[in-house]
Amino acid sequence: MLVLVIGDLHIPFRAHDLPAKFKKLLVPGKIQQIICTGNVCNTDYLHYLRTIAGDVHLVKGEYDDNPHFPSSLILNHAPLRIGVLHGHQVVPAGDTQSLAAVARAMDVDILLTGHTHRFEAFELEGRFFVNPGSATGAWHPTWPLRDPASVAALAEKAATKASQADASGADAKKSDKNATEEASTKKNKTDDAAKAKPTDATAAEKDGASAKQADGANEDDEELHVKEAPAPIPSFALLDIQGAVVVTYVYQLIDGDVKVEKIEYRKNLDSNALLQRGTAGAPAVGAVGGAYGQQASR
């Protein structure tokens, strides 16, 4: 069974439409089910999704104003249980341990979330976690303004410079101490030489101030070289569910081209665990109420 996982469209507030190259791929007749992780923000776009596949399930994002959208869902694809949650309820957002806690509470094998606008797929504690990202590449309020790698490089350079400055300061103090000891052993100093010392010190202070100004200018120049963070990458995921095996295909629009990555998850079938979970005879789809894992009857 081929399942489209899509979310965080934010149409028309942050994006006007899906990328054209995505729309060419998402054609009717190929996908059997659609799971939307929320923030569609436009009821008309739900009609568009239903033209791709009639079986559409979605949860409410923080920007969806339809009160009838459930906050979470549990869908059964025996022997798999799939939980769906937008993700703004998870604190910190996208935190792996927090997501793992939600998956345990919902008692699901696969947890689908959104909210961060960044694709992720990973396995933890025998469960599979997928965030399809934003299908439109919509911006996110918590998205970094500056490129983290560039900021880290600048911080490392600043730390190196500070370390070098400390070492230079220590060497300078040692040199001053040696010079003082050497001067104290000398005799027959003239008054002119004694008067010249303040002048030399003043010149040294001026040189030091000039050097500090130059260093400050260099730091300002380095600050200007911090790069802006790249915008969110438009993405969605297709789950090919075959029994206990799920092959995830992630589609990302990078530099105008659609890139596809393949990730496989296989559930460890433990008969005792299956009996404890009581999956036999469970309804196909259920809306979760206030507490995670409470599956309502249809």
Automatic annotation (TrEMBL):
CDD domains in the cross-refs: MPP_Vps29
Assigned GO CC terms: cytosol; retromer complex
Record-level GO BP terms: protein transport; retrograde transport, endosome to Golgi
SUPFAM superfamilies linked: Metallo-dependent phosphatases
Pfam families for the chain: Metallophos_2 (PF12850)
Keyword Protein transport (UniProt): yes
InterPro entries named among the record's database cross-references: Calcineurin-like_PHP_lpxH, Metallo-depent_PP-like, Phosphodiesterase_MJ0936/Vps29, Vps29
Alphabetized Gene3D superfamilies for the sequence: 3.60.21.10
Alphabetical keyword list: Protein transport, Transport
PANTHER family named in the record: VACUOLAR SORTING PROTEIN VPS29
Family recorded in the similarity comment: Belongs to the VPS29 family.
Name assigned to this protein: Vacuolar protein sorting-associated protein 29
Species this chain originates from: Pseudozyma antarctica (Yeast)
